[in-house]
Design brief:
Number of strands: 20
Helix content: 10-25%
Strand order of the largest sheet: 6-7-8-3-9-10
Number of domains: 2
CATH superfamily of the largest domain: P-loop containing nucleotide triphosphate hydrolases
Distance between the termini: 52 Å
CATH topology of the largest domain: Rossmann fold
Radius of gyration: 25 Å
Number of helices: 9
């Protein structure tokens, strides 16, 4: 089996504490700026994801690390060494593509061995390394098959093996599971996470799938319009988004725009444009200068009541417009008397679900919502 030490044996000789660094990197295509001053530090052994909508610059950022694109300004470093003059095939990084990019005329074993043959390694070393990596991704019994004889998940494992056999410092993953169906994608997420833990390699993944990024990553960079909006752990990104865009893009949320009427060291009162008074918990170090705010409250934080709740803060009457059964939970849409539509997620143990158009109440704690500066 491949050993973690095979990948990290030269760690003591490095000039940097980071495996990947981007320093004020820009990329311009035909006068259009795709990447705007991106700065990243990715630690050894980290599973780092770059997340964002289509066209945000995330794939271009990954291609800049891989060497398939050259920065218009700024610098890319891998393990403390500038990659400015280093072509892709000489960088200590390998890329796994969504399309697999396998050679259809070659068997699995030969696909994996291809890069090692280019490096002119000995026949015995190629044999050992290919056999080891196929065992690692559980494809040793498929070594003599052609890619067209494999399922999508099996082809993705071969693509991973072909990248790992070169023992890169950094594994780059470009939407690696995007071509798979939902059930297989979930299965491969688990396998990818296990592989990362077993190897201790640095993984950098680009994805537009929020759930995939949240479930796999140690840290996430969220991009918008070529810039990084926020970097943090999955918990930070989901529970403490820094902008309304991130709150809305990561998972589901309900957003209320309004004006800050009053605030103290522990809370702020925000009146929405429709007259709702929402109390938001806050810490003393938060900015007192914010006057216009967007309140974000996640659907799973909201309680649904059939009679007026005891809560005196953030409790509002409305009407149940729609209930959708989704197996693990119920997806409810409530129209508040003030006019807003609110999404509520209930666990699938709610004893009595009212019928559509029934009068209901919703409530949530001040600590279960967050106020963000309106742009």
């Amino acid at each position: 089996m491949l050993q973690t030490a095979s990948y990290n044996s030269d760690r003591t000789t490095l000039d940097s504490a980071f495996d990947v660094e981007l320093r004020k990197v820009f990329k311009v295509f035909n006068g259009e700026t795709a990447v705007r001053g991106v700065e990243l530090n990715i630690a050894p052994g980290e599973f780092f994801s770059i997340l964002g909508p289509s066209g945000c610059g995330k794939t271009t950022t990954l291609r800049l690390i891989a060497g398939f694109e050259t920065p218009s300004a700024g610098e890319v470093l891998i393990r403390g060494k500038s990659m400015t003059q280093v072509p892709p095939y000489r960088r200590p990084a390998n890329t796994v593509f969504q399309s697999y990019a396998l050679f259809d005329h070659m068997k699995v074993w030969d696909n994996v061995a291809f890069g090692l043959r280019i490096k002119r390694l000995s026949r015995s070393e190629i044999q050992q390394r290919v056999d080891d990596v196929l065992q690692l991704v559980k494809m040793e019994s498929f070594a003599n098959r052609y890619p067209k004889q494999l399922s999508g998940g099996q082809r993705q494992r071969v693509a991973l093996a072909r990248a790992l056999v070169n023992r890169p410092a950094v594994l780059l993953l470009d939407e690696p599971l995007g071509a798979l169906d939902l059930k297989l994608r979930k299965q491969m997420q688990v396998e990818l996470s296990n592989l990362h833990q077993d190897l201790g390699l640095t993984f950098v993944m680009v994805t537009h799938d929020q759930e995939e990024a949240l479930s796999l990553s140690d840290r996430i960079a969220v991009m918008k319009d070529g810039r990084i909006e926020q970097i943090g752990t999955p918990n930070d990104i989901y529970e403490r988004p820094q902008t309304p865009f991130i709150a809305d893009f990561i998972g589901d949320t309900n957003l209320f725009e309004g004006r800050v009427e009053s605030s103290d060291a522990t809370s702020a009162l925000i009146r929405t444009h429709t007259g709702l008074k929402i109390v938001v918990a806050r810490s003393p170090e938060e900015n007192d200068a914010v006057h216009h705010a967007v309140v974000s409250v996640r659907p799973e934080k909201i309680h649904l009541h059939l009679s007026p709740p005891e809560a005196i803060q953030n409790a509002f009457p409305g009407q149940l417009k729609h209930v959708m059964y989704l197996g693990t939970h119920l997806h409810c849409v409530v129209q508040l008397d003030s006019g807003e539509n609110l999404t509520v997620r209930l666990p699938n143990r709610f004893s009595t679900v009212p019928e559509d158009r029934s009068p209901v109440y919703v409530s949530w704690s001040p600590s279960d919502c967050i106020a963000l500066a309106a742009l």
